[in-house]
Amino acid sequence: MTDQLILRAIQFLLMSLIIYMLYLIFSHICKHKISITDRFWTGFGIGFVTDLLDTLGIGTFATTTSLLKATKIIQDDRKIPATMTTAHIIPILIESLIFITIVEVEMTTLVPLAIAAFAGASVGARVSQDWDTCKVQRVLGILLLVAAGIMVYRMITNPGADLDNAVRGLTGWKLLVGIIFDFFIGMLLSMGLGNYAPELIFFSLMGISPAVALPVMMLNAAVMLSAGARQFIQSGRVNWPGVPGIILGGVLGVLTAAFFLSNLDINKLKVLVVFIAAYTGLMLLRSSFIKNAKQEKVYADSLEK
After folding, report:
1. Distance of alpha carbon 199 from alpha carbon 278, whole angstroms
2. Which of 108-112, 118-122, 146-150 has the lowest mean pLDDT?
3. Among 1, 185, 10, 16, which residue's Cα sits nearest to residue 99?
4. Does 28 have pLDDT greater than 80?
């Protein structure tokens, strides 16, 4: 099977998933007589901003959570994961469809890494359920900050050097490392840790253009979120006000960012990757300390009782 046939098969899969997810969402809305206008424009703004940033590699988890809480669309935090997955699945599928089309990446890299990430996500809930989330967040946060520092050092000491734009994939031991890496990242997704920043920095350190990482990480996110979206929609855990607006705003945000990225030179993209890595690393460290403080408070309160 040629690379072109594999690409067409992936495109067909993504388009089929888009149609299927739209059917699931809107059939559920019609069946349960859910208002699509309730908080629509608030959701539209959230979707546009968060999915624009997602397409740039920032990710949606932290930004969407913050905006949902700030706008008071969601009162019950337990509904945030299901709501975010349902609201962002269509824009993320479209992201993946666009970037595997406009960014040339070798199928021998794209397909194995997507399979590895999907496999990691499939076993992640069982394997990682006993892991200390705070420690994982701190380790990953520190590693991202170190990697960002390495990239800054390389950009300062060799400012004229560019990433090898002729390299469109991983081979040999780098591919093997990439498969193991993405399997691990897939497992971490079950703990609420995003895949975008780690994959961007990994590709950059492997000497490959960050642009090549975009279709890989987006396809990874698309297949993993698709697996859980159907269950979330049927579970009753989705907070529907604002969701139709997030979907439409998200699609427009993706299209806006895709145009921006297609006109972004590689040096600016490298700066963006450093920012993403540093931002994500700091947010992970912040989340770990906040979560740890809450756990210590709960423990202290239990001792007092």
Report:
1. 13
2. 146-150
3. 10
4. yes
Residue 167 makes CB contacts below 8 A (sequence gap 6+) with 207, 208, 209, 212
CA distance to 144, 177, 215, 218, per residue, from 115 (Å): 24, 14, 14, 13
What single letter denotes the amino acid at residue 138? R
The answer to pTM > 0.70 is: yes
Task: With a cut of 80, say whether residue 218 has pLDDT above it.
Answer: yes
DSSP letters spanning 148-197:
HHHHHHHHHHSTT---BTT--S--HHHHHHHHHHHHHHHHHHTTT--SHH
In contact, 185 and 198? CB cutoff 8 Å: yes
Beta bridge partners of 208: 164
- CA distances to 60, 116, 154, 245 from 168, in Å: 26, 18, 21, 36
**For residue 164, what are the β-bridge partners?**
208
Predicted pLDDT at 163: 44
Q: Which domain holds residue 248?
A: 3-304
pLDDT tens-place string over residues 78-100: 677 788 889 999 999 999 998 88
Q: What is the largest CA-CA distance in the chain?
A: 66
In the structure encoding, which two tokens stand for residue 43, read together? Answer: 């959701």
Half-sphere exposure of 159 (CA within 13 A, CB side): 1
